[in-house]
Amino acid sequence: MPHPDVSAPASDDADWWRQAVIYQVYPRSFADSDGDGIGDIPGVTSRLHHLADLGVDALWLSPFYPSQLADGGYDVADYRDVDPRLGTLDDFDAMIREADRLGLKVMVDIVPNHSSDQHVWFQEALAAAPGSAARERYVFRDGRGPDGELPPTDWPSSFGGPAWTRVPDGQWYLHLYAPQQPDFNWDHPEVREDFHTTLRFWSDRGVAGFRVDVAHGLAKDLSAPLRDLGEHLSYQPGALPLDGSHPLWDRDAVHEIYRGWRQVFNAYDPPRFAVAEAWVRSARRTAYASADGLGQAFNFDFLYAGLDASEMREVIGSALADAERAGATSTWVLSNHDVVRHVSRYALPAGSTKRDVEEWLLSDGRTPAPDMAAGVRKARAAALLMLALPGSAYVYQGEELGLPEVADLARADLQDPMWVRSGGRVKGRDGCRVPLPWTREGSSFGFGPGGSWLPQPAGWGAYAAKEQRGDKESFLELYRAALRLRRALVTDETLEWACSQEQTGQGLLHFTRTGGWHTVSNLGDAPVPLPEGEVLLASGPLSGDVLPPWTTVWLRSGEPSGS
After folding, report:
1. Which is nearest to 113 in space by CA: 219, 218, 252?
2. CA 68 to chain CA centroid, nearest Å
């Protein structure tokens, strides 16, 4: 049952999303209703009370469509149906009704860059001859070399290996991800109109918004002859040109596509909302978040910044300025289904790079030995920092339970295509997708009446929501308290820094929000003076008039320290 002090949820105002807290559900790992070990839509419905009680405004549902699971559901065979293993459209409608009853909005993932190779269009393309109309919906090309035996270009797949696969008649098709994920040709009008139909299909069923997968990849330079990338093979955002001239990523033409989507969104009352997964330079992000585009874009700079105060301040300031230019609000995220959970990232030595984290995973989480106590302390401080910032906060399932990465999954249990495609150099994302624990007991710790599709650690039940409820020191109660307060405290979309750059260089972040709400984070190894004021919430124990290392506190009124 919801806690009696849960505040009223976000209204039907068109701007509900601007400062919302949105909870990401990875359906196959959230809750299993039928005991087959795979989370499903009825399972999600059965646990919606947890989200309402937590105090979030909406849930974002990762792909639940029919899929061969070549990429965890991001290979979609039918964009307007539910995978039979996860339920039915009737189950989806029942979930929407229950979410509405609880005051929760529902967002769904949309995957427009590529389909599954089992999609009816791709099967038609395979059955058709080279040059046929059916092949024009995808990207088929003749190969190079005397017999066309070489790929058309040097383009690499994001999952490793070449981005081209040859079919029996000799042509090649493009897949910037797994071979089972052929890329659409977004120059084709049928592709554009079919996605408009899909957006209307889910909007008509009550979906409030969409998370757009690989939002920066749809428009490609497919003019003949196709261009090799040569030395510029990197897909890292920092390597992309600022003028939109890359043949595959972040081309200006992509925004014409999203202007068409915006027309679909604005036909509804309130208008539908979308957030772009756009791995682009920050200067290019605003176009995705514009009012005539998707409306919002993920700010991955914050996720990868670590907990260095100076870097955090720069990232926060830049993101807020970018959002203001776009007429949007910024987004803040610490974990998602694609990255190592932040409790574990923060347990690794300061300054660990992405490659360092991958090497740690390959060692099954043993080298270097993580300092989990430090990881927990830092994750709690980061949570209160994130939830105090203006804009939308995205919370990944299990984050509110303080779940760590399951780094020691056996090689035989790995299902992420990154593992195979990289030749064992990248362990992949399975460790953050291990099914949730709901109870201390049971064959899958309350996930379902049977087992779980990825093995759960023996001690997983200690993190269970049921175990944490009522424990004032738990992650769950910290998140619940923070979200209740956030609803009461949030007004406008601004902040003001209340600490100097010199203080930030020493590990201090201190800002104010309208109404006398102060957030002070000590992201250093030494205690700092605690500003005067009424303590509303702290990420860890306080001692007298000092703020301990790696601790965030919310205060009301009081004067800034040293300002």
Report:
1. 218
2. 21
Look-up of token digits 């040569």: 230
State the chain's maximal CA–CA distance in angstroms. 79
Q: Which of 57, 109, 277, 322 is catalytic?
A: 277
Segments of the chain scoring below 50 in pLDDT: 1-11, 560-563
pLDDT tens for 294-342 read 999 999 899 998 899 999 999 999 999 999 999 999 999 999 999 999 9
Phi, psi of 518 (to 5 degrees): -110, 140
Q: Is 40 a catalytic residue?
A: no
Q: What are the C-alpha distances in Å from 292 to residues 18, 205, 296, 297, 427?
A: 16, 23, 11, 13, 39
Instruction: Say if residues 357 and 340 touch (Cβ distance below 8 Å).
Output: yes
Catalytic pick among 32, 91, 109, 213: 213
CA distance 430 to 329: 31
Which residues 6+ apart lie within 8 Å of 27 measured at CB? 39, 40, 41, 43, 44, 61, 62, 63, 64, 73, 86
Residue 254: name the closest of 216, 282, 291 by CA.
216
pLDDT tens per residue across span 69-123 = 999 999 999 999 999 999 999 999 999 999 999 999 999 999 999 999 999 999 9
Integer-rounded Cα radius of gyration of the chain: 24
> pTM of the full predicted structure?
0.95
Is 520 in contact with 553 (CB distance < 8 Å)?
Answer: yes
Cα 510 off chain centre by: 27
How many whole angstroms separate alpha carbon 74 and alpha carbon 116? Answer: 8
Phi, psi of 469 (to 5 degrees): -60, 130
- The answer to whether the beta carbons of residues 551 and 381 sit under 8 Å apart is yes
Q: Is 58:23 a contact under the CB 8 Å cutoff?
A: yes
Q: Establish whether 213 is a catalytic residue.
A: yes
Which helix (H) or strand (E) segment is 528 a member of?
A: strand 528-529
Closest to 140 in 3D by CA, of 148, 152, 157, 150: 152
CA pseudo-torsion sign 414, 417, 419, 421: positive
Local structure of residue 138 (DSSP, 8 states): B
Q: How far apart are CA 58 and CA 17, in angstroms?
A: 9
Adjacency order of strands within the sheet including 508-513: 496-497, 508-513, 517-522, 551-556, 534-538
- Supply the DSSP string of 262-287, one letter for each residue: HHHHHTSSSPPEEEE---S-HHHHTT
